[in-house]
Amino acid sequence: MNDIETAMPESRAADITRVVQAEFGKVQAFARFRISEKASTALRFTAIADGQRPETYTGEISAADEDALKVSLIRSPSRDISVVDFGNSVFRVGSSAVEATRPNGDLFGIEATATA
């Protein structure tokens, strides 16, 4: 067996591990989004897109669609609705926050707050 053949199983295992972790992160994130939606939890949203300055606002989730990888957010106090497409994002889920990173480097943070 040559070096390439020896390295392939480890590389393949690492790829599978990354896919499983990404899928698990997505499932955890959308479970958290649905809980926040049902409880009308006050949240702080932070978006850093296209290398711009962070945009932060408060509000709540009005809908979370795991199949479409989209979340509808209601901003306080304006009640404006934004839809965030989390397609191709990688999620990190903490005890009170969810972070999503897109392949292009865009970053979204959603965390529970005391008030909306």
Write the layout of secondary structure elements.
Layout: H1 3-39, E1 43-48, E2 55-65, E3 70-75, E4 81-85, E5 90-93, E6 97-101, E7 107-112
Antiparallel strand pairs: 1-2, 1-7, 2-3, 3-4, 5-6, 6-7
Characterize the structure shown.
By secondary structure, this protein is α+β, with helices and mostly antiparallel strands. 32% of the residues lie in helices and 37% in strands. It has a 7-stranded antiparallel beta sheet, covered by helices on one side. A hairpin with a 5-residue loop joins strand 6 and strand 7 (107-112). The longest helix has 37 residues, at 3-39. Residues 1-6 have low confidence and may be disordered.
List keywords for this structure.
single chain; 116 residues; alpha+beta; seven-stranded antiparallel sheet; 32% helix; disordered N terminus
